[in-house]
Design brief:
Order of helices and strands: HHHEEEEEEHH
Largest sheet: 6 strands, antiparallel
Helix content: 55-70%
Low-confidence stretches: 2-6
Radius of gyration: 30 Å
Strand content: 15-25%
Shape: elongated
Strand order of the largest sheet: 1-2-3-4-5-6
Number of strands: 6
Length: 207
């Protein structure tokens, strides 16, 4: 009877181990499939954070020399009224919610915020910038696009800390990815260790 009880107890332990391994394998695999895009993104953006200057040199286009504004032909001095009119034609139906008169890139400018973004007008020449999301566009006084810039540094930092390009989800996606990396480490350790413990146990019983 005692031998049967020991054998029964051993069988229960084996079943428990088998179920544990099955659950760990399934959760490890499915969670890996779900968060793989973000794990890759966290790795790549983390690499950027360590080598920002070198990477930005490779992907950012040549910047436009704004010193050329001073000698621009047919430049127009901008008034507060004309700046407001310009800003409200960029995103039709939107009104300026905040207006400021201060320097931008060391030039006196009008800076206006609208729901979709920001418009900055150089007071002396009429050149203007349109900033929205992670983009800044530079225009001549007559509305011709001169230069377009992506703020790649901000994009990579936002993806790394939020896991998304907006604040819609807060930091939840990045937090879930961080938790998943910890979970992968722990489950990977158990999936590697439990079969070896079982193997060592068999060797001990045989000896």
């Amino acid at each position: 009877m005692a031998g049967q009880a020991i054998e029964f107890e051993g069988g229960m332990k084996q079943q428990t181990r088998a179920k544990t391994l099955k659950v760990l394998r399934a959760s490890h695999a499915w969670l890996a499939i779900f968060v793989l895009p973000w794990v890759l993104m966290i790795g790549r953006t983390g690499f950027y954070l360590n080598h920002a200057k070198a990477i930005l040199k490779l992907i950012e286009p040549t910047s436009y020399d704004e010193l050329l504004f001073a000698d621009w032909p047919n430049s127009v001095e901008v008034t507060r009224v004309s700046a407001l009119d310009l800003a409200e034609t960029i995103w039709l139906g939107e009104e300026v919610s905040k207006f400021a008169s201060k320097a931008y890139h060391k030039r006196p400018s009008y800076i206006m915020d609208l729901p979709s973004g920001r418009v900055i007008v150089s007071r002396a020449t009429g050149h203007y910038f349109v900033k929205y999301g992670f983009t800044r566009e530079t225009y001549t006084p007559d509305g011709t696009l001169l230069h377009s810039k992506m703020y790649w540094g901000s994009i990579f930092k936002t993806l790394h800390t939020r896991g998304w390009l907006s604040s819609r989800f807060g930091t939840w996606i990045a937090d879930i990815t961080s938790f998943s990396l910890v979970f992968f480490s722990l489950t990977g350790m158990f999936l590697w260790w439990i079969p070896r413990v079982k193997k060592v146990g068999r060797l001990v019983r045989r000896s």
